[in-house]
Amino acid sequence: MKAAGRRSGTRLRDHLAASDPGLLRLTAGLRTVGAIALTLAVLAPAGADITHLVAGAMASMAATFSIRERRRGAQAVTLALGLPVALVSVSLGALLSERVVVGDVFSVALVFCAVYGRRFGDRGTTLGLIGFQMYFVSLFVGATPDRLPAWWAVVAVGFACSALVRFAVVPVTPAGLLVRLREAFRVRLARLVSAQIALLDAGPDEADKALEELRERTARLHETALMIQSRLEEGTPDEPTARLVQRRVADAEIAAERLGLLLLSARSAERADTLTLHLPGAPAPEVGRLPGPEEATALLRRDLRALRALVLRTGTAGAGVAQVRNRLLGYRDEENLPAASAPVRDVFRGIGEAARAVMGLRIALDGPQDESDDSPATARSREELDAEDAAIDAEEAEESEEPKGLRRPTTRAAVQVSVGSTLAIVGGELLSTDRWYWAVLTCWIVFINTASTGEILVKGYRRLLGTVFGVVAGILLAGLVGGNTVAAFVLVLLLIFAMFYTAPLSYTLMSFFVTAMLGLLYTLLHTYSWEVLVLRVEETALGAVCGVVAAALVLPVRTDRRTNELLVTVLERLSDVTDAAVTQLSGGPADELLDKARELDQALGDLRSATKPLTHPVTPLRTRRATARYVVALLETCAYHARSLAATAELLPTHPSIAADPRLRGAAGRTVRNIGTIAARVADGEVTAPVETGASIASLLAGDDASRYGRITGRVLRHLERLDEAVVGLARPLDVPVRAPER
């Protein structure tokens, strides 16, 4: 029974780690609910009435979710600065509530300052959020000047309870968060291997489903890798340690993705295109049983399961685990490869590379391992890892120049939201002189974390959709709780937890829980009615429309312009990574390849987010939707091959089977030039220079004198060729002419 309980507990932890990397969503929900519950527990015995309880709960919620800094010291400073901002905001809300014109002007000014404050980093963003939210709270609860000391006390209690929960009850240290993210990476890596096993066993009718699962789990592993990289600076003791973990995470991700590609190619009747793994909805290539004897397929299934067990294994290895690890690592040195076709043998080699990456990741994260049972192949892998670790050296990153004036995104957004808020105030007061602020709140919210008219339109649509369904839920819940205050507050806490837990997953769901919660709060404040909830929908729709109108007419940033700018950035980062990796593989000086690869991933992530309005299911432009998905998938394919080249180039000084070849520089020059040509075309549609095609890179490197340069691994050639093909493939959807070589 105890063993079964431990297994169930382990499965539950693994499920949570995989679905919520770092437990960030769970932590946000628990912190917010804990802060509100503690605030209510302090205020209720003190005799606070319902209005003050609601105000205290909303103050603690604002103080909890607004904090964005990662270091605890910075969080404490921002929270301390946020309290006077909140007190001033509540006071002004109470004083101006009866002065319509002055209050409206101040609301617009406050919105402008709250959005403009984002230019000052996380602290400016947080103080802006607190100022605006607390002004909204004062209007919501009907704060009046004659009771300001009581409101100040309530807000102070809310902030104090938020601080207590943040730093004592649900503490999160950067190092602890990084540990949980590492655990999430481990679990997601194991799930990716499980998807590869499913692909191995999938029949012809199941291939598409298995491939889609493989795509999804590959994307989730990449997401976790990026989250780890973004937390390394705060979560590791020094720069060399951060760079070591960064390298090992990148190695494991690349090895796992490459293993999936090798398996897909082995199961395909023809060579599987790398794009197949990155284009959502693309059909699986024609698959059959693996070529070669059935024994090879059985061994492959066994070794994939063994690899998954190595990934999930924690604690000391033991003789049995060491024996499995030695067998898998032996495939890297051509040991015990089964009699099978070349593609199948490549999969076994890929398992060996993945096992090496898993061992390197474990050493980087957990320290030295027991080496008593190492085979010669394992010992060689350890020596390679030690040599790579010793070669790590940190350098300063260059700072880029920021745009100024109205070109600065924060300034432009502040002007836009001010205009939109003015429209929302006018329209909102025509709908209701008491609830007009709902329209302003919606207009303000749709501008948060958006950068183009299309993004604002999609966000406004999602908020309205969630609000409509939330109104229905609010009506049902209000009828359910009736006048039971305790039950209402319990449901409010549950809805708040659900709101924060689902916020990163679905803005529509978050809006649904917010609106349902507000229905209960209106019940507590004895202001609930069908008319109030309908008015909530009307004000939300008005605010969303005002936000879209302001974004479209005032200093507009069209979705096409935004995506083109980000596309140029991705292409520039891709060119940087490719050029630097090829230079190093050609014998040139070393560069900070992992940093360049991370910048490429971040730029690609920004582009992926910016294209969501174009790829949204409700978009009427089906052709543009398909084109956007295809371009992003091609860029993800390019990024995968560029990351792989960078990882291989990083091994050059320490890996005995990789030698520099000066001919690579010339052979890959066409690819780098083509990337620059496409970027120039996207940036300026008048550019007419064509993309060049020609002989394969492998043929360019062929020659009688090949041996004098040492052995170039087939992997490098494959990545260069696939990258060249993918870059040429970008030309057609981006309307760049292609020129074939003259014969």
TrEMBL record:
UniProt region (Disordered), positions on chain: 365-411
Xref: Pfam families: FUSC_2
Leader sequence residues: none
Keyword Phosphoprotein: no
Top-rank taxon: Bacteria
Residue ranges with Acidic residues bias: 385-401
Keywords: Cell membrane, Membrane, Transmembrane, Transmembrane helix
Places the protein is found: Cell membrane
Membrane topology annotation: Multi-pass membrane protein
Keyword Glycoprotein: no
Residue intervals of the Integral membrane bound transporter domain: 424-549
Transmembrane residue ranges: 21-44, 50-67, 74-94, 100-117, 124-144, 150-179, 413-431, 437-457, 486-503, 510-528, 540-557
Xref: PANTHER family: MULTIDRUG RESISTANCE PROTEIN MDTO, P-HYDROXYBENZOIC ACID EFFLUX PUMP SUBUNIT-RELATED
Family: Belongs to the YccS/YhfK family.
Name assigned to this protein: FUSC family protein
Organism, as annotated: Streptomyces werraensis
